[in-house]
Amino acid sequence: MIQAEEIIIRQAKEGDCAEIANVHLNSWRKACKGLLPQEFLNQLALTFKRRMNMWKFSNFNKKYSFLIIIFFAILSSELFARAGGGSSGGGGGSLGRALGLRQHTGGSSLIGANLTLILLPIIFGFFFVSDKYIQYKITKRKKFINKILLKISLIEPEWSEENLIKITKKRFEEIQKQWGDHNLSELKDSLSKNLFIDWQEKIQVQKAKGEVNTLHSIEYQDVFIVDVKNYSDDNLDTFTTCFDISAVDQTVVNNIPTNNYLANFREFWTFQRDNTNWILTDVSQTEGWKRFVDGHIVFEKS
Hints:
Blueprint: H1 17-32, H2 38-43, H3 48-56, H4 58-84, H5 94-99, H6 107-155, H7 161-180, H8 184-190, H9 193-209, E1 211-230, E2 238-253, E3 256-274, E4 277-284, H10 289-293, E5 298-299
Parallel strand pairs: 1-5
Antiparallel strand pairs: 1-2, 2-3, 3-4
Helix pairs in contact: 1-3, 4-6, 7-8
């Protein structure tokens, strides 16, 4: 006699995001197999890390998901109709062939194809414009902070942008190595108390799974300061660096590589002074840009 396992249903938590993202990732790959080049599915559009970031970016998804749902609903109706309805009708133009669309004599099918072609550039155009706007705001902030740091460094030379970037690159590489080595003793000295507790829990989960995640072949596309808070009390000082990076992200499970891909990403790292050292207090992904770009600058003369 086989006894059924008990199924427990509960609300998803932050710690579940990795498993949820993995389910979505595999589902998308199966759904798109044969429709898109396999190399594209494996390496570019549907990497695990990108799906994680998309899932975490819930506010954006809630606000604009109706556009994506409409587009994929129309596209899916065309695909299913084609799979179950034979191959009546002639092939469309080059864009139509690229999208896998056909012209049919049926009115609804033709309308669906036309709507898909209309919505496709609108949706991708929206994301393109949104990305350009974010880049414009970040670049504007970069130039503004550069001028602020020039003034501050005249009074306190250690606040020169060159020095801060040198510090953050060094700390970035040290902390990445400590993370990959599961070196909790060194991480404890590199991170704030709250961040260390969070990372310690994640490393313990990795150890239980026999998992190691490393970042190597790091190339800095751009590194610049986006936020500065210089208080009269030095131990309150903080600054935030924006990293635009290209690197190989590798995951090994029980000594077997499971993921090994070139990733391009943007992260914001916030450091706080701890006597003569700078410790990491926060790491934010691309979606956190507004918090830093719109943040207030603080400069209190001693």
